[in-house]
Amino acid sequence: MGFFDKRRALLLEVIRLCTHTQTIDDLDEIFEGPLKEMLGYECFVCGTGFYSETGCYGYKYYSRNFPMEYFFELRNTHGGVDSPLMERWRESRKPACFESGRDDANFPADWVEVFNKYNLRNTVGHATLDRHGVVGQYFIFARLDEEVGDDHLEILELVTPSLSLALTQALGTEKNEEDFVGTVQILISKRQREILQWIYQGKTNWEISKILDINEETVKYHVDHAMTKLNAKTRAQAIGRALEIGAISAVKLAVNTEPHLKKAGKAPAKKKE
Prior knowledge:
- This protein has two domains: 3-171, 2-Layer Sandwich (Beta-Lactamase); 188-263, Arc Repressor Mutant, subunit A, CATH 1.10.10.
- By secondary structure, the chain is an alpha+beta fold.
- Helix 1 (3-19) runs parallel beside helix 7 (150-171), helix 9 crosses helix 11 and helix 10 (205-212) packs across helix 11 (216-229).
- Strands 2-1-5-4-3 form a five-stranded antiparallel beta sheet.
- The protein has helices at 3-19, 24-31, 34-39, 69-72, 84-92, 109-117, 150-171, 184-187, 190-200, 205-212, 216-229, 235-244, 258-263; strands at 43-52, 55-64, 96-99, 122-129, 135-142.
C-alpha cells in the first residue's frame, strides 16, 4: 500500500471509530491507534473548554503523558489559560503548530522558554467552537516524531470535526476535572453556580434568597457577575452557557424547598391540577 493510500485508510478508520465512540476506552482506541500512527505524537491533551475575554477555561479533559504543569505556567491573573499559539488559532481558526528552534523567532521568548522547559519539542493543535464562538473542544499533540509541517496540519483539519463528536460523547458521563488549571470553576464561583442552578430549577430571586439564607440583592449581585463572566446578556443565555460548559447540572433535582419558604413566611403557590 502506498503512502497516500495508507494515510487515506487511517483517516477513514479514525472517522469510523469516532462515529461509534461512547467511552474513554473507545477514545483510547482512536488516540493510541490510527490517529497516533498518522501524527506520531508522544503526548496529547484534549477537552471541552470555554473562551472569554479573560482567557480559556477547561471543563473536562482527556490526556495521555502531557505535562499538565505546563498549563499552570500559562495562567493569567484571572485564573484562565492562554498562550501565543492559542491566540494564533483564534485569529485564523486553522490548525496551528510550533517547532522548537525553527519557529522561535515567531513567538514570544518567555513562552518559548516555558515550552522548552517541558521538552515538548514540537506541537500541533486545533479546536472547534459553537456558533457563539464561546464553547468548544480543543486538541493538542506534542513531541511528534518528525518535524511538524503542512501534512500534520492537513490531517488535523480533516479529523477534528469527528474527534470533537467522539470527545463530546465519551466525556459526557465523566466527572468534572476540578483540579485542572483554568477549570471553569475558577471562572464562576461556587455561589454563582449554586444560584444559577436554582434559577434553572425555576426559582425566583426571593425564593433563592430564602433557600440560601441571603438577601435578594446578594442573589442579584451574583447573577449579574455570572452573566458578565459568561458573556451573557440575559439570564436565559447565562443558564444556557452554564449548562453548555458544565457549570451547572442539566438534571433538575427533586428538592423540597417548602420548609425554607414557609419559615420565611410565604409558602410556594400550589400548582393547578
